[in-house]
Every structure is written in C-alpha cells, then in structure tokens.
Amino acid sequence: MPHYLIQFFFMKQAYKNITCCILFILSIFLTAVAQNSDNKVRIIMIGAHPDDCDDDGGGTAALFAQMGYAVKFVSVTNGDAGHQLIGGVELAKKRFAEAQEAGKRLGVVYDVLDNHDGQLMPTLEVRLQVIKKIREWNADVVIAPRPNDYHPDHRYTGVLVQDAAYMVSVPNVAPETPALKKNPVFLYFQDRFQRPNPFRPDIAVDITSVFDKKIAGLDAHVSQMYDWLPWIGHYAEKVPKDKNERIKWLAETRKVPISTAVRTALEKWYGKEKAAQVKNAEAFEICEYGAQPDEAEIKRLFPMLGK
C-alpha cells in the first residue's frame, strides 16, 4: 500500500477516535444537564440490612417515586446472617434477590454492599463506601438510623452516615468520586429508643395512600418477614400459610401507631383537619451534621407535605 494511503488511513482513524471521544463527553454533559434541569430532589436511604429502609421509609420512598423523584435504598450489609436455617453466600444471594424485587415494587433502586451481617464496624473502609454511594447518587436528602439502637449493625450504620455527613463535600476524601457541591440534608429514621435522647419528629409524612405499596415491598422480603423475624421474635406460629392472609397479617404487624409527637408534627405540616385523617405515617428527625433546612426548604425537599 502506498505511503500516502497508509497515512490517510491512520489520520482517518485518529479523527474517528477524536469524534467518538467528543460525542461521548458531550453525551455525559447532556445527560447531566437533563438530570439537573427538572430540579427534582434526589433521595438516598441507608439501612444496615436489606429490608431496613423498606420498614422505616418505604412509604415515603413510594410517594417520592410516584411523583417521579429518584430514590435509592442502600443496605450496608448483605444480610448473610439473618436466618435460622440458611446463611453465608446462599442467604446473601437470597436477600439480594428479595431486595431487587422490593425495589421494583416500590419504584426505587436497591443497592446491597458486600459487608457481613452482624459484623459491621464503623471503619474507614466502610465509611468511604458510604461516601461514594451518597456522592454517586448526587443526593439532596440522606436518611439513616440514629446511632442508638438494639442492633450493633443499626448503630454503626448511623455512625457511618454521621461520619460521612461532612466528608461528602471534601474533595480530597475519596477523590476518585467527585465531591458534592453542597452538603445534603441528613435525617434520621423514626425509632422507639429513649436513651440517651428520644426521637424528635421534625418531619412527618402521611403515607396512608401508599401503605399497601409499602407492605407489598416488605412482602418481597420473604426470608425476613415470614421466616427470620417471627422465629427470632418467638411468634412464628402466628404467620399465616396463605399468601393473601400473610399480606393482611403483615400489614397489621408492621403498622406503627402514631404517637402524640408524630401527630403534632403532622398537624404542623398538613393542618389539624388533614392530620386527624392520617392513618399511617413515617417521621424523620433532622441531623445536626448536614445542611439545616428552614420550613420553606423542607417543603421543597418533601413536596408531598400539606397535600
């Protein structure tokens, strides 16, 4: 082949490669613009085990998803210890599959990190995993457990998210994942624990209209709702055999009574008349370590309030 043809061939190939690179970069830019142009809030809920986010925030997540908002659940452990008959890799695979099904039913993305259930520690390695997940999702709102709970995995998940709260905006920490331009609002899931301080419901969301959807999400976690939790809680004999009866039973047993404090928060956000009609609610406490929203910002972040 003549020299000029060889040269032409390589120049043509070089131009083709450059064009492909430009188009690739342009597509990333346009995608980013498209994602940010709708100004919709991005929410990430972080729990210790597959099913934790569903239990504590599944209704709120379903409401966000219904409104077209991006929601992600993250389980910090793979759940490989939570069963009386199976464990290890077999259980981890089962719980991952259950989480994916729950995600489909709720309309959320469900990530499961590969850390052992029952062995979670608030190490730097896991903290970096949490930081990356929050950054990758470009989260506006992060919800996690408080660091006081009966289960060490729950406690340490709370600590890990607290430790990530400031660091998600620090560029030199986990630099391979771009830092967030602004610190998200960090919230705690509701819990029943009184010491060292009781849960404070700063935000209360009416989930009555999506309670059935929340239960459908929990129903996907078969190994937990119908096997492990009844066994460890010594009420396995009460679990119905029939699928439809199971769902009814699950709805009754997972229903959280609305406390006086939560009812007061509902009245603040929905008004007294609407609050009186709420049958099911989820509440959240604002963590001091993230952005501190005023009432207008809370309404922007939770557009379902008052509706």
Q: Main traits of this protein?
A:
single chain; 307 residues; alpha/beta; Rossmann fold; 2 domains; seven-stranded mixed sheet; 11 helices; 7 strands; 11% strand; globular
Largest sheet: 7 strands, mixed
What is the 3D form? globular
Give the helix tally. 11
Named CATH topology of the largest domain: Rossmann fold
Structural class: alpha/beta
The Rg value, from CA coordinates, equals: 23 Å
Q: How many discrete domains?
A: 2
CATH architecture assignment of the largest domain: 3-Layer(aba) Sandwich
Instruction: Please list the strands of the largest sheet in the order they lie side by side.
Output: 3-2-1-4-5-7-6
Give the H and E element order. Answer: HEHEHEHEHEEHHHHHEH
Strand content: 5-15%
State the fourth-level CATH superfamily of the largest domain: LmbE-like
What's the SSE blueprint?
Layout: H1 3-37, E1 42-47, H2 52-66, E2 70-75, H3 88-106, E3 109-112, H4 124-136, E4 141-144, H5 152-167, E5 185-189, E6 203-206, H6 211-219, H7 222-232, H8 243-253, H9 260-270, H10 272-277, E7 281-286, H11 295-301
Parallel strand pairs: 1-2, 1-4, 2-3, 4-5
Antiparallel strand pairs: 5-7, 6-7
Helix pairs in contact: 2-6, 3-6, 4-5
What does this structure look like?
The protein is of the alpha/beta class. The chain folds into two domains: 1-37; 40-301, LmbE-like (Rossmann fold, 3-Layer(aba) Sandwich), CATH 3.40.50.10320. Helix content is 50%, strand content 11%. It contains eleven helices and seven strands. The chain has helices spanning 3-37, 52-66, 88-106, 124-136, 152-167, 211-219, 222-232, 243-253, 260-270, 272-277, 295-301; strands spanning 42-47, 70-75, 109-112, 141-144, 185-189, 203-206, 281-286. Strands 3-2-1-4-5-7-6 form a seven-stranded mixed beta sheet, with helices on both faces. Helix 2 (52-66) links the parallel strand 1 (42-47) and strand 2 (70-75). Helix 4 (124-136) packs across helix 5 (152-167). The chain is globular and about 50 Å long. The termini are far apart. Mean pLDDT is 91; it is low at 18-37.
